[in-house]
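Long-time lurker, first post. I've been practising inverse folding by hand and with some scripts of my own, and I keep getting stuck on stretches where the structure tokens seem ambiguous. Below is the full token string for one chain I'm working on. Before anyone asks, I'm not after the true native sequence, just a reasonable design that respects the backbone. If someone could post their per-position residues I'd love to compare against what I wrote down in my notebook.
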């Protein structure tokens, strides 16, 4: 069993929908006595007990008995509770190094974001210690957080029973991950949406009001509008020529479709496409958001004149000379600092339970 130095309960097994692997819905049929595959599999559940104002921890406690009843006869359920920022990264790396069959993020987009970053170390995917046989640790998700925006792209709700049934079903698919680089800085990975300027500033402020649930996004947006100015930005797509984009309000780089508590900002993005969808909002005023907010939520804003969309496998973004040097950058709702940054896609780099 994986030893993580936190609370360990016995039992469990992973799953995820799309194409790579299909396991029998009756997990006992997946192994036979005496076969090489008969050993129990380790599933590591990474739980942020403070997520969603403590609701994640409470729901997880109620969920454990059902989880054991569905998965416990064939797997080791390893429960790992996070104690602070970046702890989920460390838990995930240790689990992969020790050969876990899957690491399952239990919570919202913040927990998922940290778990995804734990799949990488020193610019490379983490692999099992001294592995002579190829081994892939899968990524799983039980969405229980405030936003759970990544799950929306797949049509998943915050229903933990449905999530466990996906794990029982046992389908896996390769998905893309974005990597963010800055000269002289550490690499940072994201699975959902990275964004720049107003939306990132709104996310930065929203993170301080998570106790208000989804209302935090409204509060964050209102606070971000104060003192906001659109800025000219330079972008370079797919290592091509630099282009000037005037009066940018927000620039969003989607590996998936939703952010900000259900806003379908990059409606054509999908984590298995091999490309980002890049959406640029130009010269938006406060009243544009009031009049067009419904379009941003239902994904029909691409028809608006001052909204641009394009597909890209990499994009670099910088301020033009003489700008403020304070253009916010975030990914999966996590504040990363300021421009410049380069965003590149890593196609099919993670196997996910769908």
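-- Answer (accepted) --
I ran through it position by position. Result:
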């Amino acid at each position: 069993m994986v030893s993580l130095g936190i609370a360990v309960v016995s039992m469990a097994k992973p799953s995820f929908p799309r194409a790579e692997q299909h396991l029998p819905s009756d997990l006992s049929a997946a192994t036979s006595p005496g076969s090489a595959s008969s050993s129990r599999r380790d599933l590591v559940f990474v739980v942020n007990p403070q997520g969603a104002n403590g609701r994640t921890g409470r729901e997880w406690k109620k969920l454990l008995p059902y989880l054991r009843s569905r998965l416990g006869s064939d797997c080791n359920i390893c429960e790992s509770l996070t104690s602070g920022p970046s702890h989920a990264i460390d838990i995930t790396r240790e689990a992969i190094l020790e050969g876990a069959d899957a690491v399952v993020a239990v919570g919202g987009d913040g927990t998922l974001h940290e778990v995804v970053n734990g799949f990488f170390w020193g610019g490379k995917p983490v692999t099992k210690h001294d592995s002579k046989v190829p081994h892939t640790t899968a990524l799983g998700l039980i969405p229980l957080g405030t936003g759970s925006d990544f799950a929306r792209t797949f049509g998943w709700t915050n229903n933990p029973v449905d999530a466990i049934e996906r794990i029982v079903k046992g389908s896996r698919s390769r998905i893309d991950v974005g990597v963010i680089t800055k000269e002289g800085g550490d690499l940072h990975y994201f699975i959902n949406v990275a964004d720049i300027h107003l939306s990132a500033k709104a996310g930065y402020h929203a993170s301080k009001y998570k106790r208000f649930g989804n209302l935090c996004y409204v509060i964050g947006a209102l606070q971000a509008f104060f003192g906001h100015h659109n800025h000219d930005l330079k972008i370079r797509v797919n290592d091509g020529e630099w282009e000037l984009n005037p009066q940018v309000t927000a620039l969003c780089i989607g590996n998936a479709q939703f952010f900000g508590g259900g806003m379908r900002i990059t409606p054509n993005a999908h984590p298995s496409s091999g490309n980002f969808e890049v959406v640029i909002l130009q010269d938006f005023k406060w009243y544009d958001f009031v009049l067009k907010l419904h379009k941003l939520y239902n994904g029909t804003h691409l028809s608006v004149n001052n909204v641009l969309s394009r597909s890209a496998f990499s994009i670099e973004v910088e301020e033009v000379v003489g700008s403020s040097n304070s253009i916010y950058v975030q990914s999966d709702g996590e504040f990363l600092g300021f421009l410049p940054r380069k965003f590149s896609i890593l196609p099919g780099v993670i196997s996910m339970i769908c």
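A couple of notes from the structure itself: The chain is about 25% helix and 30% strand. Residues 1-38 have pLDDT under 50 and may be disordered. Happy to go over any region you disagree with.
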